[in-house]
Specification:
alpha+beta, three-stranded antiparallel beta sheet, two-stranded antiparallel ribbon, 5 strands
Length: 178
């Protein structure tokens, strides 16, 4: 006999508290150049202190470290990234708390999609009840206004999505009428 698993409870927000496409694109327009500048500065400073860097591997490692520090560690901290601070946003997990490092690393992997990410967000976020981008679905996160409070709670359910010829299972919280 198999025992039923207890249902986890998550939160949802009022629709106005989820950041829409425009504000999220503005955040990216601020944060990506900042991360690129910090990456370049890190490579330049490292070269000036240690001399010439052999091969692209070390420079890539330095840049990757900067991006992880900026888009994962800083984003989940109370300080947030410059884009999040400027546009009054924060990122939360499905329970309304601080997202895990693993979740934000999964979300950061979508940076490899590059500018296509903005186009995907344009179509995806506008049709999603919780205004989650695909990267948010994978990571189990919401991008909400800084002072947003949950509108309610509900069970975290697994929902099936089909796109790009593939089937994905994402955890989400469905509210009443947020």
């Amino acid at each position: 006999m198999v025992a039923d698993q207890p249902t986890q409870t998550g939160v949802y927000y009022h629709r106005k508290d989820y950041l829409g496409v425009t504000r999220r694109l503005l955040i990216d327009l601020i944060d990506i150049p900042v991360a690129l500048a910090l990456s370049g500065l890190t490579v330049v400073v490292t070269r000036s202190l240690l001399g010439e860097i052999e091969g692209p591997g070390v420079a890539f490692l330095l840049c990757g470290t900067v991006w992880i520090a900026y888009f994962v560690l800083l984003k989940r901290s109370r300080f947030r990234t410059l884009g999040y601070v400027t546009l009054g946003a924060r990122i939360v997990d499905l329970k309304g708390g601080q997202p895990s490092i693993v979740s934000l690393l999964a979300r950061l992997c979508f940076a490899f999609v590059g500018p296509l990410n903005a186009l995907i967000d344009l179509f995806w976020i506008t049709g999603d009840d919780n205004r989650q981008a695909i990267r948010d679905k994978f990571a189990g996160t919401y991008v909400v206004r800084l002072h947003a409070s949950p509108a309610g709670s509900g069970p975290i359910r697994v929902r099936t999505y089909m796109f790009w010829g593939m089937t994905f299972l994402f955890r989400e919280v469905r509210g009443g009428a947020p």
